[in-house]
Amino acid sequence: MKNAGAEPPFFCFRDETYRAGLPPAELALTEPNGLLAAGGSLRPGTLLDGYRQGIFPWYARGQPLLWWAPNPRTVFWPGQFHVSRSLARTLRRGEFTVSFDRDFSGVMHACGPQRTPPGETWITPAMLHAYTALHALGHAHSVECWRAGELVGGVYGVAVGQVFFGESMFSRISNASKVALAVLCRQLVVWNYALMDCQMDSAHLTSLGAQEISRPHFTELLARLCVAPPARGAWPSGLI
Length: 240
Fold this sequence. Notes:
Blueprint: E1 10-12, E2 17-19, E3 35-39, H1 44-52, E4 56-57, E5 66-68, E6 73-76, H2 85-93, E7 97-100, H3 104-111, H4 125-136, E8 140-147, E9 150-160, E10 163-171, H5 176-190, E11 195-199, H6 203-207, E12 211-213, H7 215-225, E13 238-239
Parallel strand pairs: 10-11
Antiparallel strand pairs: 1-2, 1-3, 3-5, 4-5, 6-11, 6-12, 7-8, 7-13, 8-9, 9-10
């Protein structure tokens, strides 16, 4: 008799074996970069276990549930976020307001089209349900950027220990996502976060100060930082 509550197995692409849990990140393929496994579930415990090992889910509609651990890994050291002169002027003008955990669902829905062709989304109903559950448990968080009461940019991700794992961001007008990221990194420093994961490199992230580190270095940092608590009072809901 099957156990209805049992975790589906994970298929490891490297050694073509089925496993009861996620394979270690070092078994990820080099091409496509970081593809590690298929299967499992999006249960909160599974997701958190993956993040602690530097593994995250990413798959398109119609694909199996795929797990990734790319090498190298793109990260922000929160205190080294680069604020350009133009971004500094934007922040001083105060045309945007920024909040945390005020509209998690709105941010997730808006982020969907950023990685896919028009009309498609990688944020499937299953992904939305899974991360909404993580949000309800206090593990997933959103950063919202508003102008005149309209949601115009934002970021969402998962917080584990002193690491924030950025999942995706969006911008409906110029500078909105940059403002959200700048305020997020400023607050991560205040809250004693040591690292923000950006998953994969992009010219946009590099221009803001993101750096690439090796996967072994990344997983070594996670082993230490994911068990260290952030400052008390982190992630207050509402405007900053």
